[in-house]
Amino acid sequence: MTELNSTVARVTDRIIARSKASRARYLALMQREGDNHGDRSFMGCSNLAHAYAGAEGDQKAMAFSRAQNFGIVTAYNDMLSAHQPYARYPEAMKIYAREVGATAQVAGGVPAMCDGVTQGQDGMELSLFSRDTIALSTAVSLSHAMFDGVALLGICDKIVPGLVIGALRFGHMPAIFIPSGPMPTGIANKEKQKVRQMYAQGQVGREELLASEMGSYHSPGTCTFYGTANSNQMMMEMMGLQLPGSSFVPPNTPLRSALTRAAVHRLSVISRKGTDPRPMAKVVDEKAIVNACVGLLATGGSTNHAIHIPAMARAAGVQLDWQDLDELSAVVPLIARVYPNGNGDVNHFHAAGGMGYVIRELLGAGLAHGDILTIAEGGMAAFATEPHLDGDALAFTPAPTQAGDPEMLRPVAAPFQPDGGMRLVQGNLGRGTFKTSAVDAERWTIEAPARVFSSQEEVQAAYKAGELERDVIVVVRFQGPRANGMPELHKLTPPLGVLQDKGFKVALVTDGRMSGASGKVPAAIHVTPEALANVAGQSGPLAYVQDGDIIRLCGHDGSLEVLADLSGRTPATAPPPAEGTGRELFAMFRLGADGAEHGGSAMLALAGL
């Protein structure tokens, strides 16, 4: 076995030490839950009869044969292209369960919003908190204590982290994620990006823009760029929570059906009543969390996970911070370039070797933990493989030793970049995330006067008025979890990209989010503390910045500084909380939210996790 990289080992040991008390509390709780709710025989006959009543064809197996019963938690809706194929999954999964003497029931559904639909709209202010809503909905779904294992149907942005958080609180049971796969490749990504910038410059109209977008997002399946949704799929494999190589197999294909069937069969093996019990609480440990971080860095995944991984970790009693991510980033090389960090999409990535190649490289270089417990037989080594059909049977072969496309995948020994490209930047403006892997190295350091805004709409108006035609660091504040739910700020990407293409030195500093599609403009995002005052009435440093202040952002030395004396200034006044589109209903989430580095969650904060 390859010796573990010393930095990966040191960071892991530090996380284990930091998490000792909280992890012990979590495991003790899961032990009690398993003892108290591990077998539904403790329930009264009336309780059981209610649960069996709707299980047509499976009532006798449930009631008298004590068959294993699996709970399906589904994020199906047919407005999310990625989740549209899930409509038919439960019925098929019930058949697959019967094949191994088990039963399955839809335990519940969770909300699943599409960030692509709400991007730049009022509904985006519900996006981050939809993760906590999904976690709560998962808990409600599993609260019936009727299940011996959990199958989780979810793919996209906040949905997978929410499902993980919720399922981890029932970690005495095993859990398997079952994806549905990406849509076919649409128009070239460079062409899509070009049309977006042309629209921002007024060179094409809305009709041309819509035609371009529909040429990219065009059919059932996950969007094919490497944003948060596809980064989720990568992480589920790196953590050992879904079958090897299952992330990017297209929907509605024989191989996809075979993988779903195998997942249900595997759940029967790893359940408490199975021959090889593997409770989720034991699968998701400190090493699995580190593997998720390493995979994120090695593939240039979504910066949203600088928020989601700490939140998921907390649900398992694991304490992770951005210093951990930063130190891992320094030693984990970038070995994948997938759009928006490269030209090809996830279909090209999968064809070039995909997750099997990435995991084989990381394990071979000692950059990932190979000794974690996974849902698959054989530990992490089983994930350095590719699934295929041998006749009608599902089979796995070793991942390729050479990438099919050197512009898409490279070995650890000859990476695209020697580090993972997700830097912690910090200074007198707070702590933030800088995704350097998406930005040309000559633009990693920007020092320029600030122009301060309180919304992305204000930035757009200033751009259209020609007020940003200069070297500038655009500061967009009051975009954090407490202020407005921390929406993604994608409206900023085209105009800032245009300014940069004109030769200006441009950067963004914000307490909001940009996600995995943040593009080529240098940006310090998720800045914490956020501008809005905390419960103690203390405003974050961004609230004191004024137009013209010189700001320095540097991805080389990790600095985020304002070169001005902020003392004696009065903090800016935040806009009042917005109403409409249900935003007023989420006031408790905003008021209770903690900082982005801890996951931006009111639910976890108030639970004391």
Can you describe this structure?
Helix 8 (159-168) runs parallel beside helix 15 (305-315). The chain has 609 residues and is an alpha/beta fold. The protein contains 23 helices and 14 strands. The protein has two domains: 6-184 and 219-398, no CATH class; 423-575, Glucose Oxidase, domain 1. An eight-stranded mixed β-sheet has the order 7-8-12-11-10-9-13-14. It starts with 5 loop residues before the first helix and ends with a helix.
Give a short summary of the structure.
This protein has helices spanning about 5-20, 20-35, 45-50, 60-65, 90-100, 115-120, 125-140, 160-170, 190-200, 205-215, 230-240, 255-270, 280-285, 285-300, 305-315, 320-330, 345-350, 355-365, 455-465, 480-485, 495-500, 585-590, 600-605, and strands at about 70-75, 105-110, 150-155, 175, 385-390, 395-400, 425, 430-435, 445-455, 470-475, 505-510, 525-530, 550-555, 560. With about 600 residues, the protein is an alpha/beta fold. It has an eight-stranded mixed sheet.
